[in-house]
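Fill in residues.
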């Protein structure tokens, strides 16, 4: 994977060696990430597909089609 090669070339790890539990950690973003279009990014709240984590409430084990059943 290209990201791992980048981390190794700089001598860093994508995950810190010493981390504190319950503290947020945002991993490094690789070069040339995939992006949504502006309209799709606005609809999803992010232009980065890897950050698109929709919340479905009680139906968290389902998918978007399940949301229309109510």
């Amino acid at each position: 994977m290209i990201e791992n090669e980048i981390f190794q070339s700089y001598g860093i790890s994508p995950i810190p060696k010493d981390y504190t539990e319950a503290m947020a950690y945002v991993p490094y973003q690789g070069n040339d990430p995939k992006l949504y279009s502006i309209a799709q990014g606005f609809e999803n709240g992010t232009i980065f597909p890897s950050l698109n984590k929709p919340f479905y409430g009680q139906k968290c084990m389902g998918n978007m089609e399940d949301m229309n059943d109510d």
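The mean pLDDT is 76.
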